[in-house]
Amino acid sequence: MALAWEGGEAGELPRVMGSDKVLSDRLAQLTSAGVIERHRTPGWPPRVRYVLTSQGRALEPVMRSMWEWGMVRRNALG
Known about the structure:
Elements: H1 12-17, H2 20-32, E1 36-41, E2 47-52, H3 54-58, H4 60-77
Antiparallel strand pairs: 1-2
């Protein structure tokens, strides 16, 4: 299962996260925790792909519940 950014172009993700450094730090933390794996494709420009591990996939129900809770809160606040 590959991670997907559905918010728009790839360049938007660092802006949403706050900066390239914040994004890099978060990805490193998730990799270190065993939630995602980092796959680098050789060549130029270098490409990196992150894939959920089985441990990461196990978090899906929790993340889905948190997302649903957030949507309910957002709608309740108007």
